[in-house]
Design a protein that fits this description.
Helix content: 25-40%
Order of helices and strands: HEEEHEEHEEHEHEEEHEHE
Shape: globular
Number of strands: 13
Largest sheet: 5 strands, mixed
Length: 232
Amino acid sequence: MENTTLNSYNLIIRISSDGFYLSVYNEANSLLTSKKINAPLFSLPLEEVIHLLEKETQLNYSSFRIICESDTYTIIPVDIFRIDEAADFLRLEHKQTKNESILFNKIPAWNLVNTFAIPGTIHNALNHLFPKTIIEHHVSYLLTDEVRLQNENCLYCHARTKFLDIITLKNGNLQLINSFRYQTPEDFTYFTLNVFDKLSMDIEKCPVYLLNAENKPELGKMLEKYVTVISE
C-alpha cells in the first residue's frame, strides 16, 4: 500500500507493558486491519522503544491516536482539578515510582479529569515521534468512545491481558471506575458480581457490556451464567 493511499487512513496505537497494537481505520471509522507487536515495552531503553515504534508507524497516515494502558490513574471532578496539583491527586491513591511521567486527560462529557502516570521512557519516545499528538489513558478512551451517555443502569467490563476495568452507571450517572487484576474467567466473573453486590445493582435487569474480549470467549461464557452479557 503506497503512502498516498494511506493519507485517508487513521492509525490508532495502543501501548501496553507487553507491547503495542496498531489498528488502521478508514474515513468511515471502520477497522481495516490490526497488528500486535510483542515487546517488554515498559522496561526497554528509550532508543529501543523509539526504534520499535518508528519502524511500525513510518507510513503516511492521515492522523494518529495514541492510547496508553496504565494502572496508575485517578478520576477527579473537573471543578476541583488544578494542573499544578495533578501529581498530588495521583499520590492520594498510588505510590510514586521512578522514571514516571504524570499526564492528564480532560473528559468534558462527564465533567471529569483522568490523571495518570506512564513510564518516562514511553512518554519521551511518544513525544519524539508524535510531538503534536495527545496521549490518552485507556480509561479516558473508554469514557469518551465506549460508554454511552444515556439514562441506563449497566456495567462496562473492559478486558485486558491481566486486568479488568469496570465502569458502572446508575440512571446514567457514573458510580464506579476501577481496575482489578485477574488470572482466570472465574476471577473476572467474581469481580464483576462483587460490583453488582456492593452497589446493589439488579443482576437480572442490569446488562454487562463486555469490551475487548473477542479473543477471550471464555470470559463471556462464564459471565453469561450469571448476567446478561452484551458483547461489543
